[in-house]
Amino acid sequence: MTDTTTDGATEPVRWEPGAELPTLTITPDRYVTVRYAGASGDFNPIHIDEEFAQQVGLPGRILHGLWTMAQVARAQTDAVGGAEGPGALQRLEVGFRGMAFPEQEIVVTSKVTAVEDGVAVVTSTAKQGSTRVVRGGSAHVRVPDRG
């Protein structure tokens, strides 16, 4: 089973202050923490061992924070046309504020706050249910030419 992803992109992004970027909705599958541990080298048992996570007071295995940050980056990259698209993610900062869990939907929302010299400043939040997992996300993206 793989992660399932949807986004609300039906129209081109308006790169102007106040514009909302397409929402990224992803449901990480039950094995994403194991795959990410292998890719990142972060084998902390709170991410891969359900019993251990519960023994240390967590409700269960939690997603890696950097995996969640990658979903925020993905939302920005998708908005500028994807990894091979005409725009580019230039900078990304996030604040981790809550735990996220496999098999529960995560929603990344983003809004343009400024555009200058072809670079948009975008704020982002990632939520799982009512929990804000990432708050105060800020990205700088080089926007595609309108040309």
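[next item in queue]
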Amino acid sequence: MVFQGEFYHTIDVKNRLFIPAKFREGLGEQFVVYPSADGCLFCYTEEKWLEVAGQIEQCSGNMEDRTRQRRLLRGVATVTPDKQGRITLTSYQVERAGLEKDVVVYGMTGRVEIWDVNRFNAEMGDASATDLDMLGVKF
């Protein structure tokens, strides 16, 4: 499934967040939430997470690499949406992504991202031809 679109929701005092039905369908009955270095949370299907985690795990040649792995894997959690379509995030995940109240759930092709709305708006701008050129995208 290709994830696309952006949805605005709020996170409640119990760190619960609604995930849109179309994203839940694609992510499956349970999925993995990963605190990314980008300042947001990535949501992966369990299958895709195994690929990502496998890439991280392959880089374990020495103690420094293992320390990096631990930092990269800190805060990862498998979640199961409740009957209302909400997931519960850990305090670490909320803090790491800077989630306050208003949140954007954003489809990013192969994953879903969860952003604090202010951080998201600060990061985003309008797409340009330069963006396409830098990524090597040809139409």
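[queue empty]
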